[in-house]
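From the shared-data thread, chain only:
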Amino acid sequence: MLERTIQAVAQRDRLVVGCALAGIAAVAWLYLAHEVERFAATGVCQCAAVVIGGADLAPWSPQTLAPLFLMWTEMMVAMMLPAVTPLVLLFSHVARSRRERNHPYVSTAFFVAGYFVVWTLFSLIAALAQWILHGFALLSPQMTTASSTVGGVIFLGAGVFQFSPLKKVCLAHCRSPLNFLMTEWREGRVGAFLMGWKHGLFCTVCCWLLMLLLFAVGVMNLFWITVLAVFALSERIAPKSWHLSQVSGLALIGFGIWLVSWGRPIN
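Structure, as C-alpha cells:
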C-alpha cells in the first residue's frame, strides 16, 4: 500500500510539473505567434514597441533596448523550454525520490530559474546586437541582415562551430541529463539554482550561434524560429548515429558560401 501511494505521488508530481511546463510553453508560443502575425500585417512589433517600416531608418533610441530585451527573452523561453523539459522532469523525479528518503526537498522552479537566467543574459546580448545592427543600417525592415555578406558570415560561423570541440563537449553534456544530475547535484535552493545555471551555460554555449541565425533569416520569422527550436531539441534526443550536428554544420557552411557568393540578402 505504501509503495503504491509513493508511486501515485511521484506520478502526480511529474504530471504537475509537465502540465506547468506545457502551459508556459503554450503561452510563450501563442504570444510569439501573435507578435509575428502583428508584425507581418502592420510592421509593428508590439513587444518591442518599435515600428519596422520604410520610415524606420533612424537609429533606435536607448529606450528601445528594454522592449527588445523582453522580446528576445520571451522568444528564448518559447524556443528552449522544450529542449530542457526532459531534464526538468528528471530533476523533479530525483528531488521527489530524495524527499521520500528524508533528504531536503527543493522545488523544481529554482532549477528552471537558474537555467533561464543564463538565457536571459543571452537575450540582453542579442538585443544589444540587434540595436547596434539597426543603428548601422545592417538590418532590413523585415528584421533580417541587409547585407548578404553579414548573413553569409553568420551561417558560416554557425556551421564551423558545429564541428568545434567546444560544441562537442557542450552537446555531450546536454545529451546526458542523468549523468549531469548524478555528478552535479547540489543541496538546497541555491544548489538547485546553480545546477540550472551550470546546465544553462552549457546549453547556451551549445546553441548561441544557431540562435544568431535569426539575424540572417528574420528575427520575427515564425517558421525559422520553429525550425531552430525543433533542431535544438533534436540535437539532444536524436541518436548519435545520425551525426545531426555534423550534417547540419555542412549544410550551414554550404549555404553561407552560397549566400556570400550570391551577393543578395535572404529577403
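Confidence is low (pLDDT under 50) at residues 1-10, 48-55.
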